[in-house]
Amino acid sequence: MPSLEDQDEQVALFCGLLPRLRRMHRGPVGAAKRLVIDRAVRAARAGEPIGEYLSELGLLRPSQPPPAGDARSTTLPPAVADAGPRSVPGAHVCPRGVCARREPRRVDEEVPVCEVFDLALRFDAES
Q1: pTM, whole model, 2 decimals?
Q2: Largest alpha-carbon pair distance within the chain?
């Protein structure tokens, strides 16, 4: 059984990748993977371990922590320092506090969404 810290990281990874996973497994060919995705969502909502489902989806090797780094990929250039309006430092975090997902606050972008609970991430300002 994964430790709570590993579980938090696994839920954060899954939450960040959930929209992409759903897009990848649309249609008749993705039916089996969609079942795994749905089971993982139900387990995450219930606070149960999801490592087994991540392994089935090819996101996690059995008994190993999830890969480090940002789960989102982008083709946008990096932000230019000191350009545009200043923002309050902080990050968007899990709305239910069940995972370790942290999304940086980005100017002129929509608030990120927790796909597991279907809620907007909560903003946590840095003190």
Answers
A1: 0.57
A2: 49
94 within 8 A of 57, measured Cβ to Cβ? no
Q: What is the distance, to the nearest Å, from the Cα of residue 9 to the centroid of all Cα atoms in its chain?
A: 9
Nearest C-alpha neighbor of 67 from the set 58, 80, 78: 58
43 is written with which tokens? Answer: 């387990």
Judged by DSSP in three states, 119 sits in strand
3-class DSSP assignment, residue 116: coil
Residue 112 to residues 52, 62, 73, Cα–Cα distance (Å): 26, 29, 14
How far is residue 57 from each of residues 21, 30, 103, measured CA to CA in Å?
9, 11, 23
Q: Write out pLDDT tens, residues 15-66.
A: 999 999 999 998 888 899 999 999 999 999 999 999 999 999 988 765 545 4
Handedness of CA 97, 100, 103, 104 (dihedral sign): positive
Rg of the chain taking only CA atoms, in angstroms: 16
Torsion over CA: 86, 90, 91, 97 (sign): negative
